[in-house]
Amino acid sequence: MTQAPVNVTVTGAAGQIGYALLFRIASGQLLGPDTPVKLRLLEIPQAVKAAEGTALELEDGAFPQLAGIDIFDDAKQAFAGANVALLVGARPRTKGMERADLLEANGGIFKPQGEAINAGAADDIRVLVVGNPANTNALIAQSHAPDVPAERFTAMTRLDHNRAVAQLAKKLDAPVGEVRKLTIWGNHSASQYPDIFHAEVAGRNAAEAVNDEKWLAEEFIPRVAKRGAEIIEARGASSAASAANAAIDHVHDWVLGTAEGDWTSMAIPSDGSYGVPEGLISSFPVVCKGGKYEIVQGLEISEFSRGRIDASVGELAEEREAVKKLGLI
Ligand SMILES: NC(=O)C1=CN([C@@H]2O[C@H](COP(=O)(O)OP(=O)(O)OC[C@H]3O[C@@H](n4cnc5c(N)ncnc54)[C@H](O)[C@@H]3O)[C@@H](O)[C@H]2O)C=CC1
Ligand SMILES: O=C([O-])CC(=O)C(=O)O
């Protein structure tokens, strides 16, 4: 390891995703085993002590890739020099809260974090927003970082992607490693559209192999889209280790590339491809190479898919209007 350490800022470090995520980063799974990392943890003042406890445990891991840990309750300091930023901390919805209240509460978090990224992050900063509502939180942060290229702000739909891969593999009784080219379109919400029409399983077209539109419409799509709620119901808490795993996958593939002959799903600022209004942070099929992502072009979109993509993208456009009205973007 002769390389200079990469600064990775993680917000919400004392939360449940943070706890699962930090050990994976420290062990070299985010950026590869040869890249040393320095962790910069951001928490609210009341949770700094808990983050310090996690830092003690990280130390006890004796990870050769971990070059240091700093803990902050100030965003400007936490993002100073950041090369990778994982924005996990967010305000969860509580009883009686309307969607607009949630957007407003999160605006109070993602606006100053966007400003802090703009002020002090490294030139090669890459941002992944995990905290919900992830797509629109990413839009808020991005709009307050005018000096950072817009495409560096992304939101996480990789958990949805991985969930869809697993469900499809199970249906076809195939190993997950045989599933390729699946796509999540739209918002990380129940309106998302997991698309298997271009997917392949063991080299065969997945939709043809499944050959069961009823299963697709009534089981697969709702199961993937509502998996978050299913986990909450079963575990009594929202997905944490699987969300951390997906965050690792997202950044790993963005920096180190997607596998040859495959693609992944990332929520990224739309360039207008596939009729998604420009600027919305919406999930697309992407290929990553040389540290950059590119939308997979030229896929044929059936009527079945079109309606579902439009519905999810419509929801994103409504969220954008709502945060505009609140003066958050
Ligand atoms: N995009 C996705 O696929 C998924 C997103 N999520 C979302 O990720 C977020 C985090 O989930 P958990 O870790 O389970 O929540 P958690 O409640 O266990 O942890 C959140 C942490 O964020 C901290 N925090 C709050 N405001 C902060 C701020 N301004 N700066 C820094 N830290 C702050 C809190 O103190 C807390 O420690 C939630 O919004 C959740 O809905 C969860 C699963 C999947
Ligand atoms: O549903 C939730 O609250 C957490 C989440 O985003 C997911 O598991 O996909």
Automatic annotation (TrEMBL):
<dbReference type="InterPro" id="IPR036291">
    <property type="entry name" value="NAD(P)-bd_dom_sf"/>
</dbReference>
<dbReference type="InterPro" id="IPR001236">
    <property type="entry name" value="Lactate/malate_DH_N"/>
</dbReference>
<dbReference type="GO" id="GO:0006099">
    <property type="term" value="P:tricarboxylic acid cycle"/>
</dbReference>
<feature type="binding site">
    <location>
        <position position="93"/>
    </location>
    <ligand>
        <name>substrate</name>
    </ligand>
</feature>
<comment type="function">
    <text>Catalyzes the reversible oxidation of malate to oxaloacetate.</text>
</comment>
<feature type="binding site">
    <location>
        <position position="163"/>
    </location>
    <ligand>
        <name>substrate</name>
    </ligand>
</feature>
<dbReference type="InterPro" id="IPR010945">
    <property type="entry name" value="Malate_DH_type2"/>
</dbReference>
<feature type="binding site">
    <location>
        <position position="132"/>
    </location>
    <ligand>
        <name>substrate</name>
    </ligand>
</feature>
<dbReference type="Pfam" id="PF02866">
    <property type="entry name" value="Ldh_1_C"/>
</dbReference>
<dbReference type="InterPro" id="IPR022383">
    <property type="entry name" value="Lactate/malate_DH_C"/>
</dbReference>
<feature type="binding site">
    <location>
        <begin position="130"/>
        <end position="132"/>
    </location>
    <ligand>
        <name>NAD(+)</name>
    </ligand>
</feature>
<feature type="domain" description="Lactate/malate dehydrogenase N-terminal">
    <location>
        <begin position="7"/>
        <end position="147"/>
    </location>
</feature>
<feature type="binding site">
    <location>
        <begin position="12"/>
        <end position="18"/>
    </location>
    <ligand>
        <name>NAD(+)</name>
    </ligand>
</feature>
<protein>
    <recommendedName>
        <fullName>Malate dehydrogenase</fullName>
        <ecNumber>1.1.1.37</ecNumber>
    </recommendedName>
</protein>
<dbReference type="InterPro" id="IPR001252">
    <property type="entry name" value="Malate_DH_AS"/>
</dbReference>
<feature type="binding site">
    <location>
        <position position="113"/>
    </location>
    <ligand>
        <name>NAD(+)</name>
    </ligand>
</feature>
<feature type="active site" description="Proton acceptor">
    <location>
        <position position="188"/>
    </location>
</feature>
<feature type="binding site">
    <location>
        <position position="99"/>
    </location>
    <ligand>
        <name>substrate</name>
    </ligand>
</feature>
<dbReference type="GO" id="GO:0030060">
    <property type="term" value="F:L-malate dehydrogenase (NAD+) activity"/>
</dbReference>
<keyword id="KW-0816">Tricarboxylic acid cycle</keyword>
<dbReference type="InterPro" id="IPR001557">
    <property type="entry name" value="L-lactate/malate_DH"/>
</dbReference>
<feature type="binding site">
    <location>
        <position position="106"/>
    </location>
    <ligand>
        <name>NAD(+)</name>
    </ligand>
</feature>
<keyword id="KW-0560">Oxidoreductase</keyword>
<comment type="similarity">
    <text>Belongs to the LDH/MDH superfamily. MDH type 2 family.</text>
</comment>
<dbReference type="GO" id="GO:0006108">
    <property type="term" value="P:malate metabolic process"/>
</dbReference>
<feature type="domain" description="Lactate/malate dehydrogenase C-terminal">
    <location>
        <begin position="157"/>
        <end position="324"/>
    </location>
</feature>
<dbReference type="Pfam" id="PF00056">
    <property type="entry name" value="Ldh_1_N"/>
</dbReference>
<keyword id="KW-0520">NAD</keyword>
<dbReference type="InterPro" id="IPR015955">
    <property type="entry name" value="Lactate_DH/Glyco_Ohase_4_C"/>
</dbReference>
